Amino acid sequence: MTKFIAVVSGKGGVGKTTATINVGQAINNLGKTSILVDANLYTPHLGINLGLIKPKGTLNQFLKKERSISEVTYHHESGLRIIPASPSYQESKSYKKLVEVFEHLDETADFVLVDSPAGLGDEVNLILKHSDEALIVVNPTISSLMDGLKTIKAAKDNDTQIAGVILNMVYGKNEIKRREAESILGYPIIAEIKFDQKIRKSAHFGMPMNHNSFWPGSGRQFKQIAEHLCLVKSK
Length: 235
Known about the structure:
Elements: E1 3-8, H1 16-29, E2 34-38, H2 46-49, H3 59-63, E3 74-75, E4 81-83, H4 99-105, E5 111-115, H5 122-129, E6 133-138, H6 142-157, E7 161-170, H7 178-185, E8 189-194, H8 197-204, H9 218-231
Parallel strand pairs: 1-5, 1-6, 2-4, 2-5, 6-7, 7-8
Antiparallel strand pairs: 3-4
Helix pairs in contact: 1-9
């Protein structure tokens, strides 16, 4: 049975796409299978961060019934399977058809990770409604945590289980600490990802940082997230 996980946050720039890519690779490295979906139809980054700059087939085309789901699914050299959205700007009023992605991908992998748009608009609520679990990504700032609280409420309103919270881009000085973040959010931090130049470097080369089963630095944290997701029971 496929587990659908929405990777969400209340604002952009917190590292959802980075988390989606590296958690997906960590799941694969644990012997499970994953598909990554870029559901950000306006400003997608998932494909770009994996070196797929001008994909011939995109999620947008699937939603318009111009291509099949198999025609927009790419096999990355890292072993990841990804469904990119179009990097070209285009008006997209077809987000309501995203439910068809869930229908077509059911039973095709152990996990489907949905890289959600920023904010809490209709697209995000639709994704949450059809996901089994939500993985909340926040930064150690009060504004990000407040956005995280709103995201948690949106997940609850859609009857979506909270898989856990990722505290991302941790510098270690002059910022909110893990225990305080857990107190504010009311949920455990399942991983604390430090600001890591290796993550930026891996994105530059279009690869997950934990490719080939290496677990350096932050890679161990992504492995920890993957192990947690494999153990959490869906609703």
